[in-house]
Structures are given as C-alpha cells and as structure tokens.
Amino acid sequence: RMQVQRVVLNSRPGNNGAPVPENFRLEDTTLAADLSDGEVLVRTLYLSVDPYMRCRMNEDTGADYLTPWQLSKCLDGGGVGVVESSHCSSYAVGDVVTSFNWPWQTHAVMKGSVLQKVNPQLVDGHLSYFLGAVGMTGLTALLGVRERGHVTKGANHTMVVSGAAGACGSIAGQIGKMDGCVRVVGICGSDEKCRALVEDLDFSAAINYRQEDVPARLKECCPDGVDVYFDNVGGVTSDTVISQMNSGSHVILCGQISQYNKDVPYPPPLTVETQEVLQRKNITRERFVVLNHMSKADAALCELSQCVKSGQIKVLETVVNGIGNMGEAFCSMMKGGNIGKQVIKISE
Ligand code: NDP
Question: InterPro entries attached here (predicted)?
C-alpha cells in the first residue's frame, strides 16, 4: 500500500457564483499498488485547470459530453505523468503518458486504455506543454482558427482575440499572424498581460478591458475593421468587438468565460443589438468544440510542436507547485490570475 494525496470536491459553488478554494479539499489516502491486467501505476507530473471545469462543479453540467464532478470524490481533468510500473503491454516503466481524465492524485492506478503515450522530444522535455501549447489548448487555438476563421493570406485581415493572454488566446493570436493576418489585436485584463502580448508574442496591439475605453481603442487599433474574432469571453467585450466587424467576417465561438459563473445556457443568449449586427453584416458565428475535430489532432499537434520548437510560437505558462494548490490555482485562473496556460506541478 502506498500513501498518496488527492483532491476531492468539498462543495459546489452553485449555478450562480464564483468558485472558491474551499470548494476543494485535500485528502490523504492509500493506494493498493498491486496491479490487475491492463493497469499501470503512474506518478503525476503536471495537472491542468481549465474553464470547462466550472460546468463540472454544477450538479448538471449543461453539456452532454461533460459529466459533473461528484461530492467527496476525487476530481479529474487533463494530466501528464510517468509510468512507474505496468501490467499493460503498451506501456513500459518510464513512459510519459497523458489523459483527459487524470485523477487529481499524486499517484494513480489507471487503465492503459485511457492513457496516451507521448514523445517528450515533441516538447523538448517541457512536459507541461502537453497540457497547453502542444495539447488541448494549442489544438483549440489552431483548429479553431483554421476551421472557423477563414483567414486568407494577402487579404489584409485584422484579427481580434479576447482572453488574449490566456492559454488558448495567446496561441490563437500567434496562429492568426502565422496564417497571414496583417494585424492581430488582443484584449485582456491587465497592463502586464498587454505588455506580454505586444513585447513577447508580437501582437500588433493590446487593450486592457478593465482600464481602457474598449470601443475607442479598438477603433484606433483596427482602422480597417475586424475580419476575424477569436472569442473566448463573450459578454460586453464581444458585443463591442462584433459592432466593429466587417461584412462577411467571422466569429470563432471558442468560449464565453465571462458568463460561466451565471446560470445561463451555453452559448448564452446574445443581445438583440448584437444579433441584428450579425444578421445585417452577414457575419458567421458558429460554435467551435475542439472534441468534434479530433481526426485532425495528430497532424495539428505535429505542427504545433514544430512551431514551438522553432520559436515561431512562443509559449507562456503560469506554474504553481503542489497538489494542495489545485483549488487555489483553478479559482485564480477563473479570475485572470494566469498569463498563458495555468498548470500545477505535482512532482519532479
Ligand atoms: P485562459 O488561460 O484563457 O484562462 C481564463 C482567462 O479568462 C483568465 O485568465 C481571464 O483573463 C479571462 N477571464 C475570466 N473572467 C473574465 C471575464 N469576466 N471577462 C473577460 N475575461 C475573463 O483559459 P483557456 O485558454 O483554457 O480557455 C479560454 C476559453 O476557451 C474559455 O472560454 C474556454 O471555455 C474556451 N475553450 C474552448 C474549447 C473548445 O473546444 N471550444 C476548448 C478549450 C477552451 P483576463 O485577465 O484577460 O480577464
């Protein structure tokens, strides 16, 4: 038997309400370390916290592909770790593996069938990137832009990204530039984030929505209007961006985090004014769900890996240490405490 620590759901924040660290509880428990056929023992290296988890904190997630987290049960989400012993022919000791349903536990016994083996060379040994730039968030950014953005080289396109300094947003803007947008403008929640976007990631401009006059600054930064909008946040920010979009332009409906602590369906209803703008200007706004595009994942991950290695895509991360800080890190990310991908380092 092995001593391990895990994080369980202590309480729900309610459909209306911000999550707090007290919604999570750290526990000591033991793991029966004898493996059945097909099982592997893994040591957790990094865990991911993501906005969709807010839905899993509700009794009803509102999405058929998401199951609710259960009170007093171990939580789960994206994770990466290393195989310590194996009764599954596909895995050997030392293999690096990931899963979308990794338990929030320092070690775990998992079925080999729920794991994917990954090659550390793809990320030059930065294993946390498998949860971000060379994982789900990178895929969301790349495939979102490619499947919904209609970015055309030589067409002088302007892209706006909301939630621009976050995990998806920071990659999406760089993909937009790479694919030929002449201008990429980010909207985010602090001056430090604005500086990182412009100075480190080569965004054309950045707007702090908490401090600045967004409509006026957008006009200034996007003199030819907006052709592509990668929307991570929804709400007032998106109403403003959409009001400045060109005819025949495209919204990539990636997420609406400004509404996740409210009891509204997904996607949340638009204002009458915004609906009218979309219709009058013939703007597309189709929902994008990365899970529906996984047939393109292998090729896309290869491309992301190459871009990260070559430095064409720069990766920003906010890393917190220790399984005891999972709840804190999740709540911080939901309030904008992260620059780039929020990950938690569980062991060396
Ligand atoms: P981020 O790294 O972007 O973290 C969340 C960020 O949201 C915070 O840093 C904060 O930045 C911003 N934010 C929080 N509250 C608000 C608010 N009220 N108004 C504006 N911004 C806010 O997370 P991810 O990159 O993982 O996710 C970004 C979006 O992409 C989410 O909406 C998520 O649901 C969506 N997503 C969609 C997927 C899909 O398949 N469609 C897959 C993965 C993610 P700031 O300081 O700027 O406020």
Answer: ADH-like_C, ADH_N_2, ER, GroES-like_sf, MDR_fam, NAD(P)-bd_dom_sf, PTGR2
